[in-house]
Amino acid sequence: MNRTLLIVKPDATERNLIGHIIGRLEKARYKVVEMKMVRLSEQDARRFYAVHEGKPFLNSLVAFMTSGPVVPMLLEKESAVADLRTLVGATDPGKADCGTIRYEIGKSIEKNSVHASDSDENAAIEIAFFFDN
Length: 133
Ligand code: CMP
What we know:
Elements: E1 2-8, H1 10-14, H2 18-27, E2 31-35, H3 42-48, H4 58-65, E3 71-77, H5 80-88, H6 101-105, E4 114-116, H7 120-130
Antiparallel strand pairs: 1-3, 1-4, 2-3
Adenosine-3',5'-cyclic-monophosphate is lined by residues 52, 57, 61, 91, 109-110, 112, 115.
């Protein structure tokens, strides 16, 4: 078993898609270990996305991620990180494979509905950002 973090982003909470996303995760055999709904401060969002410091999209991303509630979830499954990246699809929904969550509900490269950790190392850091586990 290993663990990863998914965040339902504001464009998806706004469209009442939290339940839909949990359904996709559970059908893909993820166990939702912890979950909460939070409103990120600007400081939280900048800290979470510190790896993107200096990128041209950072300010807009921070504004978007603080524009409404988000739902971080600690997920567990065998090959959790790699399988979630596959299920979520490419960052740009326009380039995501058919059947992926972003293909299905993502609106744009920024408003792409979900965040998923990209490595075991980052999953541990991102889980610790939101949960005590
Ligand atoms: P996420 O997987 O959460 O990681 C960084 C986020 O920045 C990304 O999803 C998008 O929401 C956002 N973003 C906006 N523009 C870009 C871009 N050009 N490349 C990568 N990420 C972008």
